[in-house]
Amino acid sequence: MTCDIVLVRHAESVPPAPGQPDDPERPLTAAGVAASELLADELVAMNPTAVVSSPYRRAVETVAPAARRAGLEVATRWELREWDSGLEPTPDYAVHYERSWADPDFARPGAESLRQLTARAIAAVERLAVRHEGGVVLVGSHGTFVSCLVAGFSPGIGWPFSRDMPMPAVHRLRWPSGS
């Protein structure tokens, strides 16, 4: 039996402010809200049986319109959260992200490496696939989470894929459950 996992990277959100942590409460911008409403029809056409999201506001707000239209609730799971990079918001974040993609085992003190994120992402989605066997699960999450999950199965996925992923973005995976 399989489960279709529909990874939804959040729509455009209010940028983090330098000197402050990447706040889980950052909302979508007006453009992000509009994009989420437009995306809802595409997501509902996939006949979701469950909608699960990172607890970060921007991820929940991205999948909420589809959940509403499908008559489903958005459940949140901490393990679907964004990468704990250990970085404060900074305009030159790309240099730091590129370094981490070049060395997936690199982790800042007290933070998560990209290899650890990949393992977390695979385990989280495997649990969802087993729990929702035979269904279609919309998974609201974040660019680095989605990129690491895809990279776990597709060699060659790296920083350019993550850097260039649009907001929102949709990636559909057929997940073999029980394996």
From TrEMBL:
This is Histidine phosphatase family protein. Pfam families: His_Phos_1. It comes from the Bacteria. One of its GO terms (molecular function) is phosphatase activity. The lineage of its organism: Bacteria, Bacillati, Actinomycetota, Actinomycetes, Pseudonocardiales.
